[in-house]
Amino acid sequence: MKIPLLGDALRKAETARFARAMATLVANSVPLVQCVNISRAILGNRRIANSLDSVTQGIKRGEGISEPLRRTGQFPALAAHLLSVGEETGKLDAMFTRMADIYETETRDSIKRFTATTIRASRPSPTTTACACCTPAIWRPRCITSTGR
Contact, 100 vs 23, CB < 8 A? Predict the structure, then answer.
């Protein structure tokens, strides 16, 4: 997750995956603690998945889901904000769906930026190309004979 550009895309992808699973489960009246445990199992990032243990504990203590999720530090701030709105309005499933939509779009955008940056960085500059083409014609190494001349 500490990889510039790519780490951000991976975090957003995991957030979107978590939110999409939660939206489906909450919409189908699965209890919230079970929703988190099931969603935890589908995450590929162990650090994020393990942080959901404290979210489960917070839900069991009656704190809801938004505040424990914010405290983990593993999810974007907007995710916790959307969930607090969902808790206040009683439309948690709709907010999980919105969260998934937002982070799926942001994941695609982050990957496009990463790809564009990588491609730009791997292209040789005009100066590099000119030097590579002209150097062999200008610089010709001398052959050293066995006599040392």
Answer: yes
